[in-house]
Amino acid sequence: MIQSNKCAELSNKNRMSTNPQNGLSQILRLLLQELNLFYSRDVNGLCLLYDLLHSPWLQALLKVYDCLQEFKEKKFIPATSQAKALSCEVVDLLRESSHSPEIQELRQILQGPHFKALLSAHDTVAQKDFEPLLPPLPDNIPESEEAMRIVCLVKNQQPLGATIKRHEVTGDILVARVIHGGLAERSGLLYAGDKLVEVNGVSVEGLDPEQVIHILAMSRGTMMFKVVPVSDPPVNSQKMVYVRAMTEYWPQEDPTIPCMDAGLPFQKGDILEIVDQNDALWWQARKISDLGTCVGLIPSNHLLKRKQREFWWSQPYQPHTHLKSTITISMEEDDDMKIDEKCVEADEETFESEELSGDKEEFVGYDQKVFIAGFRRSIRLCRRKTHLNQLCNSAHPTSSCYSALGAPYEEVVRYQRRPSDKHRLVVLVGPSGVGVNELRRQLIEVDPSRFQSAVPHTTRPQKSYEVNGREYHYVTKETFENLMYSHRMLEYGEYRGHFYGTSVDAVKAVLDEGKICVLDLEPQGIQVARTHELKPYFIFIKPSSMNCMKRSRKDAKIITHYFVDMKFKDEDLEEMEDLAQKMETQFGQFFDHVIVNDNLQDACAQLLSTVQKAQEEPQWVPVTWVPSETES
Ligand SMILES: Nc1ncnc2c1ncn2[C@@H]1O[C@H](COP(=O)(O)OP(=O)(O)OP(=O)(O)O)[C@@H](O)[C@H]1O
């Protein structure tokens, strides 16, 4: 009943608003009032509409529209075509009159450069003083002559924003494409498919496209084209698409690009706005980090895939070339691990007590007794050990790296987490020893009621002092394997005959509690974690320069060598730098943010603010993570 009353009210209001005197702003005001009622009920899509209608730009635009509508019928005739001269006269007269503040202000206004420019523009329009003058059309055009268009563009130090090609069969010179936002497109007079007849008075018949370009390059001021217009000018009705570049592209290194200067270089992880996909081979796009710049050409999905394949096959046969050096490093690490393992085997007692002593570090404030899970040494050592296996797996054709090769662009959308949505998983990635665990621990300690790690799973027996679900979830080998094979493990490995790993469900348990789950993952786990249910935000922790690292890590210890808390050697730092570079090269497209861990306090502060932004501000995420309006 209440509902139907409201509908009646709305339709009354609508009737009222159809009165032209109320204008569109009035309609908008009424609509907003009505939406307010629905907004609190969180009806799908309404938030979006609400934000849109509230946006100041739309309201301003509608006001402009109202004004234009109001004056549309009126015909404006300039009162004078000499406004500028008149203003000068007034200024002279004012000079002789009294020096009251009002007169001084008026003089200042009339002498202001902007006002003078405005009057000057007014006079130009009033005098109909338009330039350049187009040559008159010849009178004796035969009836059978193809309709021609004469296009005159003022160069103004900008590129034309169009490419030309020769028709394979007829040999005609055609406009191949018109770049969005460029000079040609803004003129609205040149279209892809137009046939060039003359350029600057020179016939293009029999000329190569390069010769035509040379004529254009030599011209100063204006460029004149005589064209036979294409019968069906292409209409770009495609919706704007946003993609994340999963690979890099350098037009200067691509001899196949139609026009090198028109190419848009991009790096892995750049978000691109694709404005035109009409051409099967070359799309038009711009970087969202640089929307002010002109649109450029990028290879289409299909073309870039082909280029990647050609590049891949053109490489000499070296299985997993791109991972080779990383694996070598891991083998060295694995050797280290063997040394560690030997130590452990030599003294099982010590191993037990080391595990126990580790607990102390995992309580935040002894009074509060808040346990921070996920920092046990066994799982960290296990991750180190499985590092090699994971890298080997990632060299398999279905790995993230290869699939990135198969999908050069990933469609993305802007995702704004609503207060009622679960938090996004925060994942820290970085080379071993860079400080991933230190930062993670410090973040959780800032507010353990807000940030939490996931409790890992293990198949090793529970110890007397441990609590199931606190240090680990203790499960049977069978349960663990089930989780592995059903892809419910973000990462896992074997250490001293037992499995260790972090499950999706353990992460979800933290998120379900309304907390922010903070994990560290080997980069090979990135693809597994990238699901709509976790919506992970990846932060790459990067080492600073060697000199800074030597200074800041003077007293730091490499934790994984837990029998001897070893100080960082120069080789450790070099290895870290090298590994960080490799991680960025291979996985940089997935990193949402990069933090250089130089000064620990600064890095912690940056981490905290980044995590807050990841949860509260809109971010680009794969389109598959956000249900479309019809699905939701
Ligand atoms: N910015 C920093 N300045 C000084 N010391 C740091 C800084 N960041 C981390 N450390 C120290 O460096 C050592 C290694 O850090 P951490 O254990 O967090 O490494 P990690 O990235 O987790 O690597 P791993 O997984 O191999 O343990 C620790 O002693 C830590 O306190």
Description:
With 632 residues, the chain is of the alpha+beta class. The chain folds into five domains: 1-31, no CATH class; 83-126, no CATH class; 149-228, Pdz3 Domain (Roll); 241-314, Roll (SH3 type barrels); 321-622, P-loop containing nucleotide triphosphate hydrolases (Rossmann fold, 3-Layer(aba) Sandwich). Helix content is 42%, strand content 18%. It has 21 helices and 25 strands. The strands form six sheets. Strands 1, 2, 3, 4, 5 and 6 form a six-stranded antiparallel sheet that branches. The chain has a six-stranded antiparallel sheet with strand order 10-9-8-7-13-25. The longest helix is centred in the middle third of the chain and has 26 residues, at 321-346. The chain is extended and about 100 Å long. The two termini are 28 Å apart. Bound molecules: adenosine-5'-triphosphate. Residues 380, 430, 432-438, 552-553, 556-557, 559-560, 597, 600, 603 line the site of adenosine-5'-triphosphate (ATP). Adenosine-5'-triphosphate is lined by residues 380, 430, 432-438, 552-553, 556-557, 559-560, 597, 600, 603.
Shape: extended
CATH architecture of the largest domain: 3-Layer(aba) Sandwich
How many distinct domains? 5
How many separate helices? 21
Derived structural class = alpha+beta
Largest sheet: 6 strands, antiparallel
The Rg value, from CA coordinates, equals 34 Å
Report helical residue fraction: 40-55%
Summed up, what is this model?
The chain is of the alpha+beta class. The chain has 21 helices and 25 strands. α11 runs antiparallel to α13.
